[in-house]
Structures are given as C-alpha cells and as structure tokens.
From TrEMBL:
The active site is at residue 84. Pfam families: DNA_methylase. Its EC number is 2.1.1.37. It comes from the Bacteria. This is Cytosine-specific methyltransferase. The keyword Transit peptide does not apply. InterPro entries: C5-Methyltransferase, C5_DNA_meth_AS, C5_MeTfrase, C5_meth_CS, SAM-dependent_MTases_sf.
Length: 348
C-alpha cells in the first residue's frame, strides 16, 4: 500500500474550526489553529484533538517561533479570514490603520511558509469595495510573493449548506497554476430549513440525550453520523411579550406581518424574521437573535444554528451559550470548506 500524501494546514483566525473541519473532511491534516479568542480555541481543540492551538493576537505572532514550536516541516496550505477594513479609498493599505496589522499577518505567514496554496475568506462586498481597488491591491500583494490568485463570491446554499451565506473566497496557488472554483451542486435542489432541523424538538434536550425523533431527511441523517446524541440544544426563554409577537409572524414572514403598533419595537429591518421552512436560512448571525425558528416561537438553539451552518452533530460547542452562538455565527460552513478542499486537492 502506498503511503498517503498528507497535506498540512495552518488555520489563522481559526475560530472554532469550521473551515478546518471541512478541510479535514476533504483529507487534509490540520496542524495548528491560531486565534485571539480562547473560547473558540477551546471548542477547536475539543473537536480537532490531533491539532495544536495557539492563543495570541495575530498581529503579534512571530512566525519563526511558530515554525520552531509547531511546524518544523512547514505547511502545504494556509487558510484564514483576516479583516480587510484598513484599506483606503484609493485601494492602498493605510500603514497607520491598526486593522491592517491583521491582514499583514496573514500575508507575512504566507510569505514566511511559502505553502503550496492559501485560502482567504472575507465579506462578500470586499470584491466590489472602492470599485474593486481593494481586491486588486490584495491580489497584487500576493502575486508579488509568487502566487497566482483566483477569487469569487460563493453562496453556501449552492453547495448543500442550508443557509444563504455569501462569502468572498480568494485562492492562491504557488507558481503559475490558476485555481478552478468548484461548480455549484445544489442550484435547484437547495437544502431547506425544514430538511435541516425538523428533527430537533421545541424544548431543550439534555446534552448527550438520545434523539427524540427519527431523522426526517437525508441531510439530517448525514448530520447525525458519528454522534452519540444531541448536544447544544438549550432553548432560550423569551418574555411572554416576545413570544406573543413572534407568534404573529408566519413561516417565512417578518415585521411586515405585525400590526403597526408593534413594527417599530426593534428598529432593524431584519427584526422579527422567521426562517422559511421551505428555503435555506438567512445568514446565521453571532447572536443578535433577530431571526426565529420557522415553526416554534423562539430563536434557534445553538445546535439548530450549527445544523444550518452544516456542522455535524458530533461537533460539540463549549463555553457559555452566548459564546457558542458567536462561535457558530463566525464560522465558515464546514461543507463549503470541504468542497473547496476537495477542489484544491486536484491542483496539489
């Protein structure tokens, strides 16, 4: 039997490890996750037991030390989502903007390790900010250190994630090869909220308890593989007033369904939105709790949100419930990571 070719990954701004999980599912080895938030790293380590974690502000990381301590033989792939807000109107980096230090750290890591490839993910409007000048500046900076860069806005629901989450994805390959983005697999057969979470009941379930219902869809069956039971399904107790207002909004509806006297209670246009049972969910947020279950008069649980992000049920979130919501909301959907990983392996 020939030895398996192991492709090693360094995940920067790794959060709880959604992108790493997807890459792991695609056959990559996750060597190290670096993030400034210890809660996210606690969850990362619990679910990536063979990986190392390092808690530090990325702008202060010394990559020589990281090499010596964790990655003496280097890495094949660097991934991460550095903030890119520190770019000026002209598209150039403002050297005095402290937010630039995080993007610079990502660039430095790629330049230091010279991996075969990198994946950078960001907000979708990065592609169009300042008429594309910011995107073009970033491309030039990576080209200057030897990478051929491709980029695209991807919609997660096009690839089997039950969520309409758009992300800007930039992939760089060392040398002259151009990355071919994967083709959508679910343009016409998107996974709906109901297909994703209808087996999770209205009330809380104790961590580790057996599933109260049989799986109702192929997606649910896939999410259950390897899980010993239900975790992170603790419901939120809303006030009677909140519950009564939610009850007035139909499946897939929003604040427009409310009487005029109630419309202005939450002054954001996404307030009082119910997920549509027959469509993918809206983008999972980090706990602002403006979106409600398509059927029950409450916000989704952490587990329901994780399902909509395509985290399998065996992936357990740790620390406080507020922290767990933030960890889920900040993550890259693992299925999207897996699709990108599988495509990248064809080039590597």
């Amino acid at each position: 039997m020939s030895e398996r070719c192991v492709l090693k990954v360094l995940d920067l701004f790794c959060g709880c490890g959604g992108l790493s999980l997807g890459l792991e599912q695609a056959g990559f080895d996750i060597e190290l996750g670096i993030d400034i938030w210890q809660d996210a790293l606690t969850t990362f380590k619990a679910n990536h037991i063979d990986s190392e974690t390092h808690c530090q502000d990325l702008s202060e990381v010394n990559f020589d030390e990281v090499s010596n301590r964790y990655l003496p033989t280097g890495v094949d792939l660097i991934v991460g989502g550095p903030p890119c807000q520190g770019f000026s109107i002209s598209g150039k980096r403002d050297p005095d903007d402290p937010r630039n230090k995080l993007y610079t750290a990502f660039l430095k890591a790629v330049d230091h390790f010279k991996p075969k490839a990198f994946i950078m993910e960001n907000v979708p409007n990065l592609a169009s900010m300042n008429q594309g000048k910011i995107r073009d500046t970033i491309v030039k900076e990576f080209e200057s250190i030897g990478y051929t860069v491709s980029h695209r806005n991807l919609l997660a629901s096009d690839f089997g994630v039950p969520q309409n989450r758009r992300r800007f994805i930039m992939v760089g390959l060392l040398g002259g090869d151009q990355f071919d983005f994967p083709s959508p697999t679910h343009m016409k057969n998107k996974i709906s909220c109901e297909q994703a979470i209808s087996d999770l009941v209205e009330s809380s379930i104790m961590d580790g308890a057996k599933y109260p219902l049989e799986s109702q869809s192929l997606y649910q069956a896939e999410m259950r593989v390897g899980s010993s039971g239900v975790f992170n399904h603790e419901t939120t107790k809303h006030t009677e007033k909140t519950v009564s207002i939610i009850s007035l909004v139909p499946d897939g509806g929003n604040y427009k369904a409310l009487p005029d006297s109630l419309k202005g209670i939450r002054n954001v246009n996404i307030a009082w939105t119910r997920y549509n049972s027959q469509k993918p969910s809206l983008t999972i947020d980090t706990g602002h709790r403006h979106h409600f279950h398509y059927k029950f008069n409450r916000v989704p649980t952490v587990r329901e949100s994780a399902r909509l992000q395509s985290f399998p049920d065996k992936f357990v979130f740790l620390c406080s419930k507020t922290s767990q919501y933030k960890q889920v909301g900040n993550a890259v959907p693992p299925i999207l990571g897996r699709v990108l990983g599988e495509q990248l392996k064809k080039h590597l």
